[in-house]
Design a protein that fits this description.
Strand content: 25-35%
Shape: flat
Radius of gyration: 18 Å
Number of strands: 9
Structural class: alpha+beta
Order of helices and strands: EEHEEEEHEEEH
Length: 209
């Protein structure tokens, strides 16, 4: 037995707390799936993402902090697809300001598999060039000020799925100044339908799936 298309998975919020380092992190946990193996696989990936962000914030090397806060946003929970993003804001005591990092995950809830960007597209589809051109167009139209020239996305670029859009995003400082925050680039599935792998999580967002 598996979830029928459209049925959301059940999510509980858990909290990771360390008073000594002024840390409070909220993260999601998936519950009550018929397949405990898939559920365990997804929850392991989620907690690994939380700890990966802490590592990137130098949590284990730095002792004194103003605060470390973590939270998450659910972007899609339908059609046997779960897409979410974890955030981590860390403010070391000796710094002028903190920094927020993000890490996203997109799962097939039937199997618990986490999909990288490349797995959403057909083989030999040249998805990197196609997505990069669409992003360049948005940069021009939105007049986004860049600190680094944007040439192309990475093959494993950060992304999430939100309804009928693929949202590719860049970390703070990756291409824009701190004040600009994260840069999100929504791309409609209709624009890229011809290169989407039909049985991927992104393929399920196409209405005729």
């Amino acid at each position: 037995m598996s979830n029928f298309p459209g049925k959301p998975v059940q999510i509980m919020t858990k909290k990771l707390v360390n008073p000594r380092k002024k840390t409070e992190i909220f993260y999601p946990t998936i519950t009550n799936l018929p397949d405990p193996t898939g559920q365990q696989r997804m929850n392991k990936a989620i907690i690994n993402s939380v700890y990966k962000l802490l590592t990137e914030q130098h949590y284990y090397e730095i002792e004194n902090w103003h605060n470390i806060d973590g939270w998450f946003e659910l972007k899609t929970n339908q059609r046997e697809v779960l897409s979410l993003i974890n955030y981590n804001y860390a403010f070391p005591a000796q710094y002028a300001h903190g920094l927020t990092l993000a890490a996203s995950l997109t799962f097939d809830t039937k199997t618990g598999q986490d999909y990288s960007l490349s797995q959403l597209f057909k083989a030999q589809s040249n998805y990197v060039a196609i997505l990069s051109d669409l992003i360049k167009r948005q940069i021009r139209l939105r007049q986004i000020p860049l600190i680094n020239e944007f040439i192309a996305i990475k093959p494993d670029q950060d992304y999430y799925i939100a309804d009928k859009c693929l949202v590719v995003y860049f970390q703070i400082y990756e291409y824009t100044a701190y004040v600009e925050g994260f840069q999100f680039f929504p791309i409609s599935v209709y624009e890229i339908a011809s290169i989407i792998e039909e049985d991927s999580p992104l393929g399920r967002m196409i209405p005729d799936y």
